[in-house]
Amino acid sequence: MEAFKFEESHPKVQAILKKLNNGFKMGLYLWLKLPMAAFSGMRVGKVTPHFAEVLLPYQWRSQNPFRSIYFAAQCAAAELSTGLLVLTAMESAPRISMLVIAFESNFYKKADQTLTFRCEQGPEIIQAIEKAVNTGEGVTFTAISKGILPSGEIASEMKVTWSVKIKSSH
Fold it and tell me: Is 152 left (phi over 0), alpha (psi -120 to 50) or beta?
């Protein structure tokens, strides 16, 4: 069997990127599959095989009593930004299961404006998916997403540890 190699130009990869970058389709997907994310006003900014951005506005649906974005909303946006890269990397692979197995968060600045959660580890995630497919073994990796204020300052940083493996055939 030939080894699996991610190809950015693969039709399935291009199709998923088109869907992920379509504001209407992603908004509908969030309402149907991740309603908490949709309710908080979260939206996908941009997804490529190299990075993913998720925007989380500061508004009454995402705030805490201290006039900043609630930590759980920030964690959800960070997880989504890493998960979009996992979805992209596994789109042309055999059936893969994915699961968050650990999560670490750090908060540095008050999040009282829209945050852009950005994960730039697409190439590392692609390597992990290729390894899982080619070895048949489960692979774990940690993806980092940073919540960035409009000023460019980092308000928060999340480390999301994923486990990926080929789904069993039975």
Answer: left
